[in-house]
Amino acid sequence: MEDLSNALCEETEFGMMSLSCINMALSEFYSSHGNYKTRLVLTSRDSNRDVVAAASAGLDLIKNGQVQAILGPETSMEANFMIKLGDKAQVPIVTFSASSASLTSFHTQYFVRATQNDSSQVAAISALVQAYQWREAVLVYVDDEYGQGIIPFLNDALQAVDTRVSYRSVISSSASNDKIEAELYKLMTMQTRVFIAHMLPSLGSRVFSIAKRIGMMSEGFVWIMTDSMTNLLSSLNNSVVDSMQGLLGVKSYVPITKELEEFQVRWKRKFQQENPAVVGVELNVFGLRAYDAVVALAMAAENAVNSTNFQIFQNPKSDSANSTTDLDSIGVSQSGPVFLQALLKTTFNGLSGEFRLIDRQLQSSTFQIVNINGNGARRVGYWTPDRGLVRNLKVSSGHSTTNSSILGTIIWPGDSTSIPKGWEIPTNEPKMRIAVPVKYGFTQFVKVTTDSSTNATTITGYCISVFDAVMKSLPYVVPYEFVPYPDPNGEQPNYGDMIYQVSLGKFGAVVGDTTIRADRSKNVDFTLPYTESGVSMIVPIKDNKSNSAWVFLKPLTWDLWATSGCFFVFIGFVVWVLEHRINEDFRGPPAYQAGTSFWFSFSTMVFAHRERVVSNLARFVVIIWCFVVLILTQSYTASLTSLLTVQQLQPTVTDMHELIKNRENVGYQKGTFVYDLLIGLNFDKSKLIAYRSVEECHELFQKGTAKGGIAAAFDEVPYLRIFLAKYCSKYTMVDPTFETAGFGFVFPRYSPLVPEVSKAILKVTEGEKMKDIENAWLGEENTCANSSPSVSSSSLGLDSFWGLFLIAGVASTLALLIFAVMFVYEQRNLFKTSDSESSKWRKIRDLARIFNQKDLTSHTFKKGKLHEESGIQGHDQSPIGTSPCTHCYPSPSSYDHSFTFYGEQGTPSPDHGNRNNPNVQVTEEIDVVIELSNHSQEQQRIPEDIP
């Protein structure tokens, strides 16, 4: 027989229900397990819901009753002392209702929680908040250890979904109704309308009743309850439930089984028999867990007895008479460690679900999401760790879901089906103070004027008009007022300092030409941008239209000129190599051959080459080269025409690095982040000059660096558009452009207005209203600025034509390789002699000499020879009426026909007359009789050996 104590408040409905379940568990378990050697004996103590009474009852049970385990206590406050007492006596303290997350911080060995930890539900609550995209929430909880235990876990879970806890409302369990009402009225004055309540029904019933009465349960409000109230909803009377209409709640999930349904019938019948005067008590999840806890203890006791014998308490060695307190004389259970280990290993399927203890507490992975409607809670979905929010557990899903549409239809407070946005502007809230920078230049964006007679301040500008249009498009009214923010020294204010004032709470927002920056967003939130973005450079322009005698060189860059010249020479060389042996036009003295080759290559520019091209390889090269020349000449002509006819407005500086290298002065608008940007680009601080207006920037440009002015200015694109509007004929924007996010409105961190205003910005910018605002403030600027696009170099470079040169080079090289292979193959007999060093050089010289000779086997020379012979033989057979040409000089072909033993220089061949040499082409000398006539008409016969 093992002693089991119960420390509950037996006079409450909760205590009566729990005690009934415990007694039924003992009787039903042992009736179905008659073979068990052990029996649990229940000893009850009533704590009367008092912490001291619970501690006293626990001490009495351990010291005098020498119990082996304590089932209870009921509340987390009562469990504090009893947990430490159990550790001292090595007696397991098993609770089925004390769920405070702070109890696990004691790191005790003998505290077993047969219920869920409150921290296990915070993920389900944060998933709800994330699903409806609420960015702020107020925590309302009871001021005791039970209420405070969940707050750190809940705060972390909300931060994980980017939701801020804007306020913590702590209400004492003994607070009067007046104090509760005052606290709720305080909550009504705040913007946040999402409240997460964590308290027991005794306090929660009063809070919700008062909230209903003062109007906090109307449309637009959101209330989310933890399972502390939703699990005990059946114990609340109808008037309290009526005040909670529209609330969302997280509730422990208990699978419906046949055993559970049968037990509910048995319990209801037994409870009414034992308590006929008590009406309205309903069975809840805590009663089921009490039942399962008793079953677990009974199974653990049997397993522990089978492994060892239970022993009574061992009294302390100190004399009881000398003990100053009862705690000094408390004994230590010798069987406690064994009993504890047996309990921790016990697993079974109970009435409330699977009973499994991990880290000495019950694990549960599923929660129900309920909506309070009518007389009870209506389930709208579930939450599981692996699937998130789901409507039905039976439908499988492969990933976590945080979409609100997955839940069933929810009736919100005020019988509304529209999802509350989670915040409102209270009617008694003062106007939102919006800081506006006082600018001394670029007043098209923000302009602050003060009437000297009335001292009235008027704030206008592009940014102001956009903000007014955005706020008017919201479905509700947000009262606000503009407050000028000047610099204390009368200068243009520093925008970073002005934005930082919002994070300090001095302003509710900033409206102006404020650029969205990463470093600024650390303390504040920006809306979506409403202007174009980027930081660029503006420089003076000059007319490059030149009447110089060398203007014809400007259409092409120097590298393109050089490449073109090299290719002209290269193509001429290639054509000469391919045509030299077979074409009369490419033969003759060396100077003549070189001139002809270059002349042929350069004449292709105007397609006026008169030399014949007879080789197919040469024709292929010339075709490719003519195509390249055609593209080059056409491009050159177009560029030169543009230079001579169109006004060339070129920037004085095209590269930012030139400014740094030449130590030129650079301007920036005072008070903006551009100064830090320029420092990051390695500009010298002494070379940075600030300006405040368009006119001041123009004056600095007019002075130049030499007179203390600037050579270039860096600013954001919207400002540069304004500048170019006034001086579009004198300046231009050039690259590079540094990306920024544009202008945006500034609000405090986690402000609920940020997503609402951002949506309104999209609505305004996509409509006609934005065009009207731009035309009113920036219309003329846009027209002029757009006529000055970014300028680049006007000369044509090699990067535009390298593909053409690549094609021509590959084609020419390929033709040379083919010719070389064919030539060497034809003279292959030349390499069949000895391989001595002198012989190698001789072969190379012979090969070069053969290349320099005419290829008489070519069809071009065969045709020429036939034509020559035909002419000689027909000299005396001239037609009637014609006479032979007696004053004509020999054609080039007649000279070349007789060349065999003499080179082009007239040097005799070393193999002259050696007809037995197979490697030498031997021809006979031909005597040609040429008739020359002079003014005396004297005929001579001149035999010549034509070289």
Low-confidence segments: 785-793, 872-947
Main-sheet strand order equals: 7-6-8-9-10-17-18-19
Outline the biggest β-sheet. Answer: 8 strands, mixed
Ends distance: 140 Å
Radius of gyration: 51 Å
Shape: elongated
pLDDT average, as an integer? 80
Question: Which class best fits the helix and strand makeup?
Answer: alpha/beta
Helix content: 25-40%
Give the total of beta strands: 34
Number of helices: 28
Assess the beta-strand content as a share of residues.
15-25%
If you had to describe this structure to a student in words, what would you say it looks like?
Mean pLDDT is 80; it is low at 785-793 and 872-947. By secondary structure, this protein is of the alpha/beta class. The strands form ten sheets. An eight-stranded mixed sheet has the order 7-6-8-9-10-17-18-19, with helices on both faces. Strands 26, 27, 28, 29, 30 and 31 form a six-stranded mixed sheet that branches. Strands 2-1-3-4-5 form a five-stranded parallel sheet, sandwiched between helices. The protein starts with a strand and ends with a strand. Helix 7 (177-188) packs across helix 8 and helix 18 runs antiparallel to helix 25.
